[in-house]
Amino acid sequence: MATIKILESSDSHVKLLLKGIDRVYANALRRFAISEVPCMAVDEIVIHENSSVLYDEILAHRLGLIPLTTDLEGYILPEDCSCKTSLGCTKCRVLLVLDAVATDEVKTIYSGDLVSEDTRVKPHLDNIPIVKLAPTQKIKLEAYAKLGKGRNHAKWQPATVSTLTDTDNASEFHLTIESNGSLPAKEILLQATNILNTKLKNMTETIKESA
Are 14 and 191 in contact (CB under 8 A)? Predict the structure, then answer.
């Protein structure tokens, strides 16, 4: 009989003991938690001014890797939105603005300097360094965050997930989810479980229809 026991649990971390479950299903949960559970990340930027030492492309890359808190009920995936525009609309994207300048001394710009139009979607941590500005240097830009999946880009991976087999019992596994802060660890687990169930149901229906 298959059983699941929660060994450790917090917003950022959840550890499960899976008994009587085939390794294939344990690994499927791990893969879906990494690659199929959507989360928010900066995907497009419009730079109005950048006199820093970073090229626009490097700046965009750094912004994309900042974990953003995610509201899965409030937004939809861009491919499912009717707007069909590159920058998206209020149903599928969130605008964050960065407007920073160094005056008389070197100034470090952090993730907390990004101002979001929606407080539900903002940097998970305020102290992630983005760039250092020398005196008189300035950055002014618009960053558009969208939902995405880890299978398309690492910036949309909401967690690191690992499975460890019990050396004394090959049918027991430890599944550990470490959230990057975009979603609570339990939410990532629930979403991955729902995705797995949906895929299995669709496969069963397809087989029945073709029989």
Answer: no
